[in-house]
Amino acid sequence: MQPRTRMNSDKRLLTVFGGSGFLGRYLLRHLARKGYMVRVVTRDVRAAGFVRVYGEVGQIAPVYGSLRDRRSIESNVQGAEAVINLIGILREPLLSRGAFQAVHHEGARRIAVCAAEAGVARLIHVSALGVHQVPSSRYARSKVQGEQAVREVFPTATLVRPGLVFGYEDRFFPLFASLARFTPVLPVFGTHALWGLSRRGTRLHPVYVGDVARAIVALLAMPSMKGQDIDIVGPQAYPFGALMAMIARATKRQRLLLPMPLWLARLLSYATNVLPGRLLTPDNVRLLAYDNVAEDSGALMRLGIRPQALEDHLPSLLQRFTKK
Ligand SMILES: NC(=O)c1ccc[n+]([C@@H]2O[C@H](COP(=O)([O-])OP(=O)(O)OC[C@H]3O[C@@H](n4cnc5c(N)ncnc54)[C@H](OP(=O)(O)O)[C@@H]3O)[C@@H](O)[C@H]2O)c1
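Above are the sequence and the NAP SMILES. Below is the predicted complex in structure-token form.
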């Protein structure tokens, strides 16, 4: 039996899957400001209870749902005018090699099928930038298959592909900022030279989490974006080495940038894959072999959002790691 959400019937109801996560928290605040009532589908209603505070009393309700439990999806999309799917994982649990498929492909399909059957008007499915160019990565393949499945069963879905998302709770910048606290070097992944003598590294195209959230809200109000794919990135792409240099500057530490060719990164990933925390998995390394950059970086501007620059946020985002 599903917990029922008491929703005010004259307000517009949305269902968000994965709303308790990093991007979800920002999205919920923006949706609440626009006056939407939101069901946040989560595997753990108690743990996700904090999402209530992003809206007025009763405006945001965490409700139980699991990708494995089709009935929970069916009941949670009923009556929603739009469904937003933010569910995603960057690493598979060590003993669960099918997790990417189960979450990004089969799970995404299941949500899209249930939304279509329930007559939901809009589906916004969040994928990731650049997944089409890395068939060797199981993460990327599952994301692509998820996109294709969503398109097949819900042709008017809007596919959103953010670049590397930064914000207070992201995992990328704090990871390297905390590494800088303990080691004299910062790695530059993705150097293609044989011995890794280049300090450039793979290029990434970061985007501020609040901008991605605002973009999703803007897309909801634009029926013309039905059936479209959109890459959401910030104003500038950076080589990995430049990002490491920015982290060192922002945290007021002088660190050597150590070129890390992919073969070495791969060796390291196998060696550390079994350690707690699993900083880098072999599948993550496959992603690092390719630049993750949007050809067209104007989508946010076209949605009426001026993209925020990484440089403006980094010092405050990393303040907790800054040398005193
Ligand atoms: N963060 C980035 O840099 C980035 C970049 C590009 C694309 N994206 C995409 O943007 C979306 C949101 O990313 P995010 O960083 O906000 O993700 P996140 O914080 O890691 O997780 C989002 C939510 O997914 C749900 N979830 C995780 N594993 C699940 C599973 N096995 N079954 C069902 N639900 C599961 C969790 O909700 P519950 O625990 O409440 O169930 C979690 O709160 C994802 O699709 C991600 O791939 C993110």
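The longest helix spans residues 99-117.
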